[in-house]
């Protein structure tokens, strides 16, 4: 597979194309690190960009929601654009216009399709959030599953764009007495906080969260 070739015209990165990648392994890693994606679509009320929880199984990204969701209904009728972004640092350069960010991002195009086997996919979502949790909680009942819609979109038409490293200053700015470098950003997991009425000892997947 040639991972330097965009899968379609609309996935071709033109601005700062040297940061682009069409490698499925990188795409999977960016999706797997995400808790939320943003989905842009249009309906009779205008254009929207909605954040929603997401997870990956194989070559598809999954979302879920209520059967009455206006967004979910629209996504099965039209193409959309899904985006995910992780900001890893603020890059401070010696000149104002050379400041940037270190980041990992993905843009996915296509149309969502209905998932029939909701139990398997929603259990996978639970294990994405907290591996081992599904086996310990009350499983969803028929009424709850019946009220829920699960959709998936193929990851075949997508592009990644990433940046990592120090600032790229112009040669004429290198002598300026200005601090330059990276202010790192990272996702931090805090100590789990039990509900006030919870008297159950924290299981391994909870203890592991803050480790």
UniProtKB/TrEMBL annotation:
Pfam families: Pyridox_ox_2. SUPFAM superfamilies: FMN-binding split barrel. InterPro entries: Pyridox_Oxase-rel, Split_barrel_FMN-bd. This is Pyridoxamine 5'-phosphate oxidase family protein. It comes from Pseudoduganella flava.
